[in-house]
Write a structure and sequence with these properties.
single chain, globular, mainly alpha, about 425 residues
């Protein structure tokens, strides 16, 4: 199953390692906030709506960060931008631990979002261009498992700190740990090279390049992919952002119990990422997306509304994490295979992060609706709407499995 990995060149493996580390630490920094929410509700007296706003602002600003970083990738190089974005989000995650009130945390979370969005854009393009066509789907998909690793690390640290530190300090230490990704930059600087496809492209890139993916012949592809990602990201954020709060306030689990239950869901997500990586090459990108979206609708409703005990909900959480996060493995290769080299950075950066930015509204909406309908119902409403939007957008997009990047160098008219 993994014999293909030994066929990769040293350059391909190093690029995989760098991007895996970037995504893992990216997830660690971003997912920390979901575990901090219950503490802020208690210590600062903020509402669930305000907590949703703090989650949303990072994701909303990440849309601009990814769009800008994508354009900068085409101008200055994928590796340089990857290093800068990692340093940026690590620094502002660290500063979040020093916030004294809602307004300060809001500003730090917004600035964190610029680097958070930019890191994915740079890493996805770098991976897509370095890994050869026949291995691209599984390689980029396996690197996506770094998100589950980082999320799991956040849950583990939360469980440890909640058990050993006073609540007034534990949430701060979680954010301070977010400085760790900065160390990865030194390794990337030494061992990771720019893709040949980028180095061979000689035409200059001006600042109007920011809008190149929003013009023909790329516009039709751009808006369809952005809608697909909006649905996927919005649904995922609606489900995962408030899960710690749901388990603690609706299921009445302790802090340690909440962390333990989420670790099971995250373990499912890890295997979902791995399965999605291989399915993307075996049954195609679109079929993998569809299996994940439709399965997520069913498992989400079971998790939130089935009359199951806390013991029974544990394996359902594993299945929900497995099927829901599977959809993110094919996204990188899918978008890489839709845009030519000249606009690949800005195209992927805009589509993924515009989708993430619009999807970022979902946690805020869940927070507002929870006050009227309850947290479980609010999560279900926006989770289902996002997944339905994803399915509709997918029907308008082509399958790209096995597509050579060289075949994209002559753009196809709309």
């Amino acid at each position: 199953m993994f014999a293909w990995f030994s066929d990769l060149t040293q350059r391909e493996r190093r690029t995989m390692f760098a991007c895996f580390g970037g995504w893992s630490l990216d997830a660690l920094d971003v997912q920390i906030f979901s575990f901090v929410i219950p503490s802020l509700l208690l210590l600062w007296g903020i509402t669930t709506a305000e907590a949703g706003m703090l989650a949303t602002i990072t994701l909303l600003v990440s849309a601009f960060g990814g769009w800008i970083a994508g354009a900068l990738c085409d101008r200055f190089g994928r590796v340089k931008v990857l290093q800068f974005t990692i340093l940026w989000y690590a620094f502002f995650t660290f500063l979040c631990g020093f916030a004294q009130d809602f307004n300060q945390l809001f500003i730090f979370r917004a600035l964190q979002g610029l680097g958070f969005g930019g890191e994915w854009a740079a890493g996805a393009v770098l991976m897509g261009e370095v890994i050869r066509d026949k291995y691209r789907g599984r390689a980029v998909g396996l690197v996506q498992t770094g998100w589950a690793v980082g999320w799991g690390a956040a849950a583990l640290l939360y469980t440890i700190f909640a058990a050993t530190l006073p609540e007034t300090l534990a949430w701060k230490v979680l954010f301070w740990v977010g400085l760790a990704p900065a160390g990865l930059v030194f390794w990337i600087r030494r061992f990771v090279e720019e893709p040949d496809l980028h180095n061979q492209r000689r035409e200059p890139v001006g600042w109007d390049h920011m809008f190149s993916a929003l013009k023909p012949p790329y516009l039709a592809t751009t808006w369809r992919v952005a809608l697909m990602v909006t649905g996927a990201q919005g649904a995922s954020y609606a489900i995962t952002t408030f899960l710690p709060t749901y388990l603690k306030t609706v299921r009445h689990l302790t802090s340690v119990g909440t962390g333990s239950y989420l670790m099971v869901l995250i373990l499912g997500a890890f295997f979902g990422f791995v399965s999605g990586a291989f399915l993307a090459d075996w049954i195609g990108r679109k079929a993998t997306f569809m299996v994940s979206a439709l399965g997520s609708m069913v498992l989400m409703l079971v998790y939130l509304f089935a009359p199951l005990s806390n013991d029974m909900i544990l394996p359902v959480g594993f299945l929900l994490g497995y099927i829901n996060l599977m959809m993110f493995s094919p996204m990188g290769p899918f978008m890489t295979e839709l845009f030519p080299t000249a606009v690949r950075g800005v195209g992927q950066g805009f589509c993924y992060n515009a989708g993430r930015g619009i999807g970022a509204v979902f946690p805020a909406l869940v927070g507002f609706l929870a006050a009227r309908l309850g947290l479980g119902m609010a999560i279900a409403v926006f989770g289902f709407c996002g997944l339905a939007l994803m399915v509709v957008a997918l029907l308008l997009l082509p399958e790209t499995r096995g597509r050579s990047l060289l075949s994209l160098e002559q753009p196809v008219a709309e």
